[in-house]
């Protein structure tokens, strides 16, 4: 069979000379050396499978934050000084019966403190609890200022000692911070090191979290206390633990995909070959990711799902073409060659659009999103190899079953009522109704998505479900302690040795007063908060003396009794801690704007206010980066995808027909996010880019086939009917396959995985529906019409 007498559609081949020449060069060599190519695929697959088996969970604090943002750069500059205020966890040890003033409870608290002290990754010098010497009480007496450790040396649990501990806690001012307001629990504050000192590698948050569960929660809850643990490391650890269920979800997706392909094709041969090639793509993707030095974090662990689903969705086109052409009497080899020839250009461009959707995420300077973008782009690249080259080779050997041919013949003889009904959207009368309906949907979505926010909209850890153990622990600590777990830190830079000087004290004191009046700020503390209290204490405890002192000798004397974490070693920086009611997007925006406004008006060489550290400061930086990057990312993905579509079809009108449904679906997705209370953040931002990049595949495949029939002289309605009979069914199956690939995420314990699954499922299905209805409708109104020959 020659190229001239086959019926393969050649869409704008003169516009794709380079792609066409590549196809002409590849096809004979691909099938001539097919056995050697299969052996090469087998060897490479073995290497990548070995590498994939070595993959380990990988998550770090710096990967989760925008490392190049000024806030983060400022934090990293003073990371050592701010370590007790940065990446740390808080362990609340609650007495189940009675209060904390019992020998049994305090002995257990000591055991918990010692246990945590020896866990690798803990910054032991800054660990705090009632038992550590860096937590002291202070008292003014007739003889002067006295201080000491809260739980004294030689504590034996006697009633007298317990009374002394009670008095020391009252004198320490730690009620509300280290001791609960109801005095039924206390906190062990645990700063963390980014590098595990035992291994010299990045701290493994998954392993660290498991140690906390095994060595602290499980061990000591059996001894009459209840343990509550919160902090960034625990969130990430719980995410890694929840992600381990991803294997079960993948197995369910795998089975559903096999069943769906068997139902569609009635061919066990093509189904097994397709699933094999797509599984191979997953193995390659994981192996290459390992070779690139990446691991699996809670975000990129979702990429193998997408790789498998995208591979299957594109392979459906191969199955559809193979079955149709085999029915016409061609051999397995001829059909395999024709399938390669027919799908090489549209399939490659569709996969390029997928890659664009992923790669535009690189504009977001957050490590986990960039790794997700690279990992997903690698997945698309290996799909090109396995789907475009390996799948046709394998199909040339196995062919299709007789049951598949009988099913194909039965479909060909069907009256296709649904297709005939859908093809009416190619008539101008129905097209106008479709376009008006789409405009109404878009207007509604546009009105609703104005409520879309940047950042988190829920308290606690929104990455986890509201009833998760972490969020229950967080709710307990929030309700029993006055110092919030949401801390925004502003650094005040001064000349060396001047952090305690009066000019600095005066402006910092004004800053604290102004920030405490910002809605969302519960309280604040700094070097001078404690300094004023100490000055009053050394002057007989008189409140008249609880004020800033202009006398440098007085302030220096007081500063020697202040915890070292409230100023740097050379006294050139002091942090101001703002305790927030929550870390919601609106709260962080107000705090950042107020702090920046104060800094702009009051910064001097003597005292320069620098933002920001603390978990809320870092989250504020993340929100700012996402807000700035989102418009650029969307502009890039739409522009590049539109350019590829135009390059494919050489028509601005066709490009509009294909791109408009994508834009409407994106607007609908944002409206749904707004109504579900989902903000645009690290977990949800990739959804929009992925939906656009993958969703355009439907339009490319549909219009590719539609143009075939139009070039044969058919009228638009007739051409679209023929398109629906062939590619249309495959596109519908593609949408369902992609949706099934992410549907299982909805049941994940990790809320952001569930959110991503729900949103992607919606985008995949609506992009498919939009392409089937809107492309013919827009084509009938925008393109010149031909009459049937």
From TrEMBL:
InterPro entries: MMPL_dom (IPR004869), Mycobact_MmpL (IPR050545), SSD (IPR000731). The chain crosses the membrane at residues 35-55, 245-264, 271-293, 299-322, 343-364, 376-400, 430-448, 632-649, 656-676, 682-703, 724-747, 759-783. The keyword Transmembrane applies. Its main location: membrane. It is found in: Cell membrane. Pfam families: MMPL (PF03176). It is a multi-pass membrane protein. Keywords: Cell membrane, Membrane, Transmembrane, Transmembrane helix. Residues 272-397 form the SSD domain. GO terms for cellular component: plasma membrane. PROSITE patterns: SSD. This is MMPL family transporter.
